[in-house]
Amino acid sequence: MPEKELDRAVQGEYKLGFEIDIEQDTVPPGLDEETIRFISRKKEEPEWMTQLRLKALRRWKSMEEPRWGHLYYEPIDYQSISYFSAPKKGPESLDEVDPKILEAYDKLGIPLEEQKQLAGVKVAVDAVVDSVSVKTTYSEELKKHGIIFCSISEAIRDYPELIKKYMFSVVPMNDNFFAALNSAVFTDGTFVYIPKGVRCPMELSTYFRINALNTGQFERTLIVADEGSYVSYNEGCSAPMRDENQLHAAVVELVALKDAEIKYSTIQNWYPGDEEGKGGIYNFVTKRGICEENAKISWTQVETGSSITWKYPSCILKGDNSVGEFYSVAVTTLAQQADTGTKMIHLGKNTSSTIISKGISAMKGQNIYRGLVKIGANATGARNYSECDSLLIGDRCGAHTFPYLESKDAHGQVEHEATTTKISDEQLFYLRQRGIGEEDAVSMIVHGFCKEVFSQLPMEYAVEAKALLNLTLEGSVG
Amino acid sequence: MSAIMKIENLHATIGGKEILKGLNLDLEEGKVHAIMGPNGAGKSTLSKAIVGHYDVKITDGDIIYKGESIVDMEPEERALEGIFLSFQNPVEIPGVNNAYFLRTAVNAKRVHEGKEELNAAQFLRLMKELVNELGMKTEMINRSLNEGFSGGEKKRNEILQMMMLQPELIILDEIDSGLDIDALRAVSEGINKMKDGKRSFLVITHYSRILDYIQPDYIHVLKDGAIVKTAGAELVAELEEKGYAALEEA
């Protein structure tokens, strides 16, 4: 098929690129101790938190930006970024949330008025615009179950014992360059605590929106599932279309105590930039979870946005019989680059992990799978299954797979399969000969390729993910 | 008689090499036309040219279908206008559910014809009925399209699609290759059921075996890129006996 037609079919359209027209309070660009104190003051944080941030800043200053990713971009000037921006109006109750923000979230398909939600499908939402959480829904109802669902800023003020115990416990502040930066300047994000034996009665979600110009978003999420509890959490995100690159460096920590289960799903749709690689979000994210005995953490991600993605949601399988899963669809089109994958660290006995990674590249997109399976000396009976498939659409894109294996236990069972397929002309033609239009045919083949991952998403998010994939890969019809 | 398709002085190349060299052929409405010929004569190229396959470049001549030239039409437009090709080697499409695919195709055609789309229940009832009729396993409905199907299952699946889509011109490219006798019978019964006096068939085959099951009205012999002989069904026996080489002297 001619390259031009394929491009038209896959260049999509970014429909969430609007700007919310609100008054914002933005700190001037630059990063030093004073910036940190400013953020801490704005958030009315206790002194111990300020001190932790300052410690992280000192660590960060002594670290170097990692360059091992298969990614090409101009050096980031960390002094030209503004590290705090918030809508001016205070968000104390829903009535006080700026109507323009409510409208914007409606436009994104995320109603913040509880009664607007469909009957029967309750999803609690924490809405974050730039550096602050503007609204958390259903907090009261969840409280009845003993569940804490609030912004991380509130949690630092209201639940200091939990924060002191678990924050930095999975991703230490000096874990890596971007995690250290986040530890110093993190602005908002979500905190979830599920008490012992409680099964969270609804889906929890956070929707992140970058709005302000020249501002980075540095959110921090911490989810603690106490013994025998269960929670399914989802995050989504978007940003306005701008010609400048914007930095997003988040940290997510998951703690699954004995017999607990956390399902964490991401639909990442940051602005991807244009065909020449101009604009778009630089997405450098550290996500990691720790599993105690019999616990399970399952990461599912659908990555369609950002100009650069650097992200490896990982599991430390510390407890015996614990389970880690990673299901990923990463799409790179236009000039997007993604270096993504996972780390499964097997420490406990009879731990098992599954990795299913699907990379789709179109136009000039570059898709890299990078994964590590590490089996410790005491992890007898550890098992891993990895499957990494790449689908290429057209001739100018690329896919690379870097699987690493470190095994200290000779009996560990590790299986790895990798395939790269080009979307075949013969498949497209077959569908078209049955009367299915070219764009629908491409989308049908791509959806088929992603099926194993989509089936892991909660139903309403699976629908969203499929729609998003269509939008990303197809020119809008009609 | 009225022709559903007229192929006029068709010249076509594949990868720069001329395969069809001035082919003329009229297909009559409601009739079964068989194209026979030795390997490399251009049989598959002819079927590809009719459905608009990307391998084939038409350099001269025309294909008129229902009174209009189709050589510039997209493959999906030709399909929606009623041209169906049963592929010689149907391609596998992993993860695409067979029923979902076929429902999309059936509804695309219905929308094109200004009819209402079939809902999932209506569609499945129809599909299950035909699946049983063709002696296919019910589980085939929810398998991935052609993935891991045996040769016979793939061909039955092609016939299933044909019966669901109700096309007007049906091209069967080596439909009998790789079929055991039971599959051949089921497939032929499906095809014979589709004969209604209006629908036309173009049966492309190297061997005459299939023609014992589907009675052709006309036999065309394709050799070196052109039709060299046209006759009634009696030609089959002659070809069986003497082979294609004998036509040289004829």
Give me the count of strands of chain A: 23
Oligomer: heterodimer
Helical residue percent of chain A?
10-25%
Work out the largest interface and the residue count of each chain: A-B, 24 and 29 residues
Mean pLDDT of chain A: 84
Find the count of extended strands of chain B (DSSP E, 2+ residues). Answer: 10
Radius of gyration of chain B: 18 Å
Which class of secondary structure composition applies to the elements of chain A?
alpha/beta
CATH fourth-tier homologous superfamily of chain B: P-loop containing nucleotide triphosphate hydrolases
Q: Note the total helix count of chain A.
A: 11
Shape-level CATH architecture of chain B: 3-Layer(aba) Sandwich
Q: Report the order of strands and helices of chain B.
A: EEEHEEHEHHHEHEEEH
Radius of gyration of chain A, CA atoms, in whole angstroms: 22 Å
Tell me, briefly, the overall form of chain B: globular
Question: How would you describe what is shown here?
Answer:
The complex is a heterodimer of chains A (478) and B (250). Chain A is α/β, with parallel strands linked by helices. In chain A, 23% of the residues lie in helices and 35% in strands. In chain A, the strands form three sheets. In chain A, strands 5, 6, 8, 10, 11, 13, 15, 16, 18, 20 and 22 form an eleven-stranded mixed β-sheet that branches. Chain A has a ten-stranded mixed β-sheet with strand order 4-3-7-9-12-14-17-19-21-23. In chain A, a hairpin with a 2-residue loop joins strand 3 and strand 4. In chain A, helix 9 packs across helix 10 (438-454) and helix 10 (438-454) runs antiparallel to helix 11. Chain A starts with a helix and ends in a 5-residue tail after the last helix. The relative contact order of chain A is 0.11. With 250 residues, chain B is an alpha/beta fold. In chain B, 32% of the residues lie in helices and 27% in strands. Chain B contains seven helices and ten strands. In chain B, helix 5 (151-165) runs parallel beside helix 6. The longest helix of chain B has 15 residues, at 98-112. In chain B, 40% of the residues are buried. The mean pLDDT of chain B is 91. Classes of the chains: A alpha/beta (478), B alpha/beta (250). At the A-B interface, helix 9 and helix 10 of A face helix 2 and helix 3 of B.
